C-alpha cells in the first residue's frame, strides 16, 4: 500500500504588521477587547499589489527547500484559497507558472478556513491511488482584501499569509486519516454575498454573525475530534500535538479541553497572525516544525472550521 507523508514545510507572512493599537485608530475598539475576546495581538497585511500567489510562491519555495526537492519534482499542485489573485486561471496555475513547471495538474480548492484540510485530504487521496508522487499543497490568503475596514466586528479578526507542505509517497503513514464535512444551510452566518451574476449589489465585503459562528464552531470541532479518534480506535492521550485552525483563542482552548490536552501541546499562532483562513494551519505547523516542537514520529491532529460551513480534520504521523 502507498501512503503519503509530509516531506517539508514552509510559511510566509507579509512584512507589514497591523497591531491592535493601530486598529484603535481605525475603528471603535480597544486592544484589551480584542485580546480578551480573540487572543489576537497583531496580524500581517499584504502590501498594495501583493497577491495570494506572491505569498503562495514564497511559502512553496521554502517548503520545497525543506523537503530537499526542486519544483520539477512536483507532479500536482493544489492551492487552497478564498482570495485568489484572479477569478481565473486558478492560483494553482499561476503558482505553477511562477515555479516554471509545466504540464502537471494544478487546481484550487475553495473551502474557506477549512481549505487546507480539504487540500491535504485530496492530495493524500491522489498519492494513495498512485495518481501523484509529490504534491505541493498550499494555503494562501489575502483576507485583508475582502474585509470592511470600517466594521469592527470583522476587521480585528483576520490577516494575510501563506503556508505550504510538500507531500510525498511513502510505505507507511504519514497521513492516517482525514475527515471532511460541509453544510451549506449555514451560508448566511459567514459569507461574502457578492458573486458573479447573482444580482447582489450590496457591500463587497465579508459579513459574519460572530457569536452564532462561535457557538456552532465549538460544538462542531468537538464532534470532529471525537469522529477522528473513533475512526482510528485512538484515545485522546495518543495525540501529541493539536494544530488547530487559528480563528480565536477561546475556540482553540475549547477544543484543547475536549482533547484533555495541555495548552503546551497546542500550536497557537493566532496572537501574531490573526485568522489567515486557509493559511493558518500550514503556517502554525511550519512554525512548530521549524522551532523543533513537532518531531518526526509524533502524532498530530489538525482541525478546522469555516464558511460554508465547512469543517474537517487530518490525523497524521509526522
Ligand atoms: N471592539 C469592541 N467591541 C466590539 C468589537 C470590537 N472589535 N466587535 C464587537 N464588539 C461589540 C459588539 O458590538 C457588542 O456590543 P453590544 O453589546 O453593545 O451590542 C459586544 O462587543 C459583544 O458582541 P458579541 O458579538 O456578542 O461578542 P463576542 O463575545 O461574541 O465576540 C467575536 C465577538 C467575533 C470575537 C466572537 O463572536 C468570535 O470570535 N466569533 C467567531 C468568529 C470567527 O472565528 N469567525 C471565523 C470562523 S473561521
Automatic annotation (TrEMBL):
<dbReference type="GO" id="GO:0005737">
    <property type="term" value="C:cytoplasm"/>
</dbReference>
<dbReference type="Pfam" id="PF08541">
    <property type="entry name" value="ACP_syn_III_C"/>
</dbReference>
<dbReference type="InterPro" id="IPR013751">
    <property type="entry name" value="ACP_syn_III_N"/>
</dbReference>
<keyword id="KW-0275">Fatty acid biosynthesis</keyword>
<feature type="region of interest" description="ACP-binding">
    <location>
        <begin position="246"/>
        <end position="250"/>
    </location>
</feature>
<keyword id="KW-0012">Acyltransferase</keyword>
<keyword id="KW-0276">Fatty acid metabolism</keyword>
<dbReference type="GO" id="GO:0033818">
    <property type="term" value="F:beta-ketoacyl-acyl-carrier-protein synthase III activity"/>
</dbReference>
<keyword id="KW-0444">Lipid biosynthesis</keyword>
<comment type="pathway">
    <text>Lipid metabolism; fatty acid biosynthesis.</text>
</comment>
<dbReference type="InterPro" id="IPR013747">
    <property type="entry name" value="ACP_syn_III_C"/>
</dbReference>
<feature type="active site">
    <location>
        <position position="245"/>
    </location>
</feature>
<keyword id="KW-0963">Cytoplasm</keyword>
<comment type="similarity">
    <text>Belongs to the thiolase-like superfamily. FabH family.</text>
</comment>
<feature type="active site">
    <location>
        <position position="275"/>
    </location>
</feature>
<comment type="function">
    <text>Catalyzes the condensation reaction of fatty acid synthesis by the addition to an acyl acceptor of two carbons from malonyl-ACP. Catalyzes the first condensation reaction which initiates fatty acid synthesis and may therefore play a role in governing the total rate of fatty acid production. Possesses both acetoacetyl-ACP synthase and acetyl transacylase activities. Its substrate specificity determines the biosynthesis of branched-chain and/or straight-chain of fatty acids.</text>
</comment>
<dbReference type="Pfam" id="PF08545">
    <property type="entry name" value="ACP_syn_III"/>
</dbReference>
<keyword id="KW-0511">Multifunctional enzyme</keyword>
<dbReference type="InterPro" id="IPR004655">
    <property type="entry name" value="FabH"/>
</dbReference>
<keyword id="KW-0808">Transferase</keyword>
<dbReference type="GO" id="GO:0006633">
    <property type="term" value="P:fatty acid biosynthetic process"/>
</dbReference>
<feature type="active site">
    <location>
        <position position="113"/>
    </location>
</feature>
<comment type="subunit">
    <text>Homodimer.</text>
</comment>
<protein>
    <recommendedName>
        <fullName>Beta-ketoacyl-[acyl-carrier-protein] synthase III</fullName>
        <ecNumber>2.3.1.180</ecNumber>
    </recommendedName>
</protein>
<keyword id="KW-0443">Lipid metabolism</keyword>
<feature type="domain" description="Beta-ketoacyl-[acyl-carrier-protein] synthase III N-terminal">
    <location>
        <begin position="107"/>
        <end position="184"/>
    </location>
</feature>
<dbReference type="InterPro" id="IPR016039">
    <property type="entry name" value="Thiolase-like"/>
</dbReference>
<feature type="domain" description="Beta-ketoacyl-[acyl-carrier-protein] synthase III C-terminal">
    <location>
        <begin position="229"/>
        <end position="318"/>
    </location>
</feature>
<dbReference type="GO" id="GO:0004315">
    <property type="term" value="F:3-oxoacyl-[acyl-carrier-protein] synthase activity"/>
</dbReference>
